[in-house]
Amino acid sequence: MQLSDVTRESVVKAIAEYDKLGREEFLERNGFGEARDYFLVFGSRRYDSKAIVGVAYRHATGESRRSGDFTGGKNVAKRLRDLCFEVDEGTSQSAKS
């Protein structure tokens, strides 16, 4: 899996899917757990970064990815920042559905 395949457009599509399904169903349906360290911030909401990037990868390539396909949240956070998204590092607040 190449994180470079993930585009800003595919991330926005994943965010829309997350918002439609809600956090719990989005994570369960796509095989991800709750984020612990890195959260995508978009608008006034926080999203589980690995889950968003995993689903964004599917939107970009047509191939599904699960949590185990990632080597760590730091690389996911870097890709999101490269695409001009804000990433919050910290465990003080969870994402909200």
Detailed description of the structure:
This protein has helices at residues 8-21, 23-30, 49-61, 73-82; strands at 38-42, 45-48, 86-89. β1 (38-42) and β2 form a beta hairpin. It has one domain (3-89). Strands 2-1-3 form a three-stranded antiparallel β-sheet. The chain is built from four helices and three strands. It is globular and about 30 Å long. By secondary structure, the protein is an alpha+beta fold. α1 packs across α2 (23-30) and α1 (8-21) packs across α3. This is ScoMcrA-like N-terminal head domain-containing protein. Residues 4-89 form the ScoMcrA-like N-terminal head domain. It comes from Antrihabitans stalactiti.
Please tell me how large the radius of gyration is.
Answer: 12 Å
Mean pLDDT: 90
Main sheet record: 3 strands, antiparallel
Distance between the termini: 27 Å
Question: Largest sheet, order of strands side by side?
Answer: 2-1-3
Class from helix and strand fractions: alpha+beta
Helical run tally:
4
Give start-end ranges of low-pLDDT stretches. none
Count of the separate structural domains: 1
Estimate the strand proportion.
5-15%
Helical residues, percent: 40-55%
